[in-house]
Amino acid sequence: MADALKPPLQSTVRPSDREPSQDDLEKLRAWHEERLQRKLRGEYESQQLHLAELVNDTLDCPLRIASVKVHGATHTSKAFLDWLIRPRLSSSQSDHATDAQPTLHSVLQTTRAISHSLSATDLFRTVSARIERSPEGTPGDVDLNFTVTERGRFFVKTATEIGNCEGTASITARLTNILGRADTLTFNSSVGTKTKRAFDASFSLPVSPSLTTTAFLSLVGADRELGAQGGSGREERVAIKAGLRHGGDGLEDGVHELTVEALWRSIGNLAPEAGLGIRQSAGPALKAALAHRWTIDTLNDHIMPSKGALMRIANELGITKRIVPSPFPGYAASSLWSTSNIGNNGDMGEGSTAFWKVEAEAKRGWALTSGSALSLCARSGLLRVLAGNSDTLHWSDRFQLGGPLSVRGFSADGMGPREGTTSLGGTIYYALGLSLLSNVPTRPTWPIKLHSWVNVGRLQDHGQDVRSTVRTLLTRPSLSAGLGLVYRVDPIRVEANVAFPLVAARGEGLRRGIQVGIGLEML
Fold it and tell me: How does pLDDT run across 384-413, given as a tens digit for each residue?
């Protein structure tokens, strides 16, 4: 038959196939590869549809989970995995308590729930599951076999930050899964121009199988300069905190955090012109506090939000007493407190002060046009003395306001009551910020955004007459406006603004012209 075929032969090319000319070998090879890929995709999709039909037709097939095994979790405690997985099995059994027996549908749901739980621990890079016939069980028994790949347990990072006339260098080390229970030990140490040194060592681990509740214990310390607003002094502080954190992404009730804290702090090295208000807080002091913070956050972007909202409320009950000597032998009383008129024994007198402190913050974002967003932020706070003399309230417990992270156009902590150049802080405040962010024309992908804003706020002490206090707050605000640029380095926000203070109370520290700020949250 082949011998009967003689050229020229009729072409078998069909126009619908769009087969290229036989003379162009490269196009012909690419065409054949694309045709093969289309065929493979079609076979794969056909197999997927066939598998889906097969599973749907057998969802009511009786199956029972005989065992669950996790392979590859070499550094994770078996007791922790059992504690994590058992509630998912119990939930599956309770859902089918009234049925004759569980089915393939319930097995698939349990497999998915366990996979999500293993992934939520953030211990594993990959999680894969297999449903296999149980070799030791009765007919209808299956084993769930999970194969995981653990993440690295050690992490070290160094960083430098510059902003608002301050530079810092830090190192962070993190160790995970030390006890095999998804626990984390983190240590951070930093040095800087204003915060001379700081450290933070914390340990946390989940305390509920749902992984929504975490217990933590931390030890923090800092030595920072207070600047001209703080009498040109320095403050040391060492605190130990313990608490519970409940909630996370996707929970409608937000995140709750309950914390108990024991804090040692000392203000000293004050300048001769420092005000009496901060001198009354100089020397060592001890503070014990119980705090609760509730946060719900649905913002789609914290730097340039176009939808969603944020709400945060923090309450604190605290008691202070200035009797504890310095735990830092390197800071002798003669050097640290030489200009604070404090005796070498560090005794600041008798008496304690108990107070209640509440702060609230709300933020909302709107999309205006393509590439521009409007955001409104409001903050307020109230501090009430419950026992003791309000004049002995510690300077660090009072509210401070002003600066590039709060009310722009004013110096850091430059608003509110003052004594000379020293800020006395206040017991009641509010701050409002309206910001408009937009893309640079013809450069929508640039991380630099155009920024225009208006800030309003006031800080003062509240009096016995509530009506008079509220009237003063609302009728005598400080006001500023400005233009600038925002550079986003997620999650950090860097601002460079030209600020124009428009209304200010007598003595408040103004910051006209260029003002630079860097932080995670700004007004």
Answer: 999 887 778 889 999 999 988 889 999 888
Using alpha carbons, list the distances in angstroms from residue 398 to 132, 163, 477: 63, 25, 19
Q: Which of 45-59, 241-255, 270-284, 425-439 has the lowest average pLDDT?
A: 45-59
Residues 275-293: pLDDT tens digits? 888 888 888 999 999 999 9
Are the beta carbons of 169 and 158 closer than 8 angstroms? yes
The closest of 269, 264, 265 to 337, measured between CA atoms, is 269
Residue 491 preceded by cis peptide, ω within 30:
yes
What are the start-end ranges of the H helices in 58-77? none
Please give the helix or strand (H or E) that residue 83 lies within, else none.
Answer: helix 78-95
Q: Which two tokens stand for residue 452?
A: 């225009």
**Tokens (6 digits) for 6:** 């003689």
Report the C-alpha gap between 128 and 55 in whole angstroms. Answer: 19
Query: The whole model's pTM is what?
Result: 0.79
Cis geometry, peptide bond prior to residue 8 (ω within 30 degrees of 0): yes
Structure tokens at 162: 């510059």
Contact 290, 350 (CB under 8 A): no
Please give the Cα distance from 68 to 140 (Å, whole number).
15
Per-residue tokens: 479: 């006001």
